[in-house]
Each structure stands twice: as C-alpha cells, then as structure tokens.
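Supplementary Methods, section 5.1.

A reviewer requested that the exact input to the structure prediction be made available. We therefore reproduce it here, unchanged from the version used in the analyses.
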Amino acid sequence: METDKKQEADILFSRTVKAGQRIYYIDVKQNRRGEMYLSITESKKMFSGSPEMPQVSFEKHKIFLFREDFSKFNEALSEAFNFISDEQGEVEERQEPDGLINIDMDF
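The structure derived from this sequence is encoded token-by-token as follows.
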C-alpha cells in the first residue's frame, strides 16, 4: 500500500486514453535527481479461464522517455504516423463512452 501511495505521489501530470480493450496512461514523473520524464503505460484487459468462471487480468507494458530524447522520439513517431496514413489512409478516431482524449504531441 505504501508503494502505491509513493508511486502516485511521483506523478506530476497524467492523462488517460481509453482505446477499446486497451488503456494508455501518459504520466509525467520525476526521478530522485529532480529530472522529469514521460512514463507511457499500455494496459490491456486479458481474459482466461472458462466462460462460466472467467478470470480477468491486466497485461501492462511501460516505456520511459527522458527529455533529451523527446525530439528524436517525436520525429520518429510522426514519421511512423505519416507512413501509416500514407499507406492506409486516414481513419476515423474511435469514440469512447466518456469521450476521447486528444494528445498534443508538439515538443
């Protein structure tokens, strides 16, 4: 319980993006030296067990991105987004029950 409280206290800024069976948490945290960094967590709901007794768990993946890498990461991500759009065209954004959060990726 203490660990959970400590982790929440380290979050300086947070946004949640719901996308179907996945949820993305975009958090700004601070390390012991006072340096801020971006923590991106993908949480995916997983089902196992029988239909009569389903078991739900969450598979999580995290990446940590530090400020000195923002522009390189932003450039690569923009290029990847553009490549997909050029190859497959634009797609309508998924609308979630409580709305979709748009993230401005300008660094």
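The mean pLDDT is 83. These observations are discussed further in the main text.
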